[in-house]
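User: Hey, quick favor. My workstation is busy. Could you predict this chain's structure for me?
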Amino acid sequence: MNVTQRKRFVSCELIALAAGQPQAFAEMSERQYRDRIQWIAGEILASGRHIVMLTGASAAGKTTSAHKLAGAIQSLGRRSVVLSLDDFYAGEGRYPKNPDGSDDYESLQSLDLPVLRRCLEELHQRGVCQAPVFDFKIQQPNGVQTIDCRDGVVIIEGLHALNPELTKDLPPDAVFCLYAGLREEYAAPDGSRCLATRDIRLARRLVRDFLFRGHRASFTLGLWGHVCNGEERYIKPYKPRADLLLDTTHTYEVCLWRNVLDSMPPDPALTSVQQRQLEALCRKFVPFPALGTELVPQDSMLREFIGPQGV
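Assistant: No problem, here it is.
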């Protein structure tokens, strides 16, 4: 697969037509994603490689997709486990600094690289390692976890997964590289782009940050510029290393975000600029028919962002 392929353009009219049968639309979108996961699982096993490095931009769905891939590999009769690069954070007091003096969590040097490289070498040679567990409440490593991929596959997911500095001590053919991203954007009746993948990812992140991380919209929007800059610096330069692209598009989700965003409580901490940014984002979903989140299966990747039913 060519990971530099152009994104697909889908017209608003086609979305409106599909949304006329909402259940069928949702099921088709979910099935397409499941089929991609299953196909990539087969490709990984066919490659004979035991370490998968998976990255993607913020809110691309890489974490849930990593676990979906592990499940698909297990369904094919092989052991599979997921390891997050977040567990290799160096910890409070060891992070590099941004120019304003704040901790830089995006930099490669925010990870404990010697420990990470040791784990990767042990996984390659023996299929098992003792990896750290990072405690975000105390901002320090706290405990260890046994990662065992003997006769199977370990999927290592995170921001820097495709950076060759992580795997420089391994043979060139030791790892299978994956890039997770949305590949579908949407066109107005005049053919112009009206909704980009970055807009969808921001909607995903706004809701996930609020539901699962305790962050209001002002925090997420304030951080978003740094996040996007980090993607340009630390992810996109290594995208050509990917063996395959994992498309995390769920076409029907463009019909979900208007209601979901509208249901979020107001944030009095929003600046006037952030308020306009949020309003502009919400307007981008207005051209699409509004569908309810009850259409989203409980095991859908989208639940990573919208939470379980009833939340």
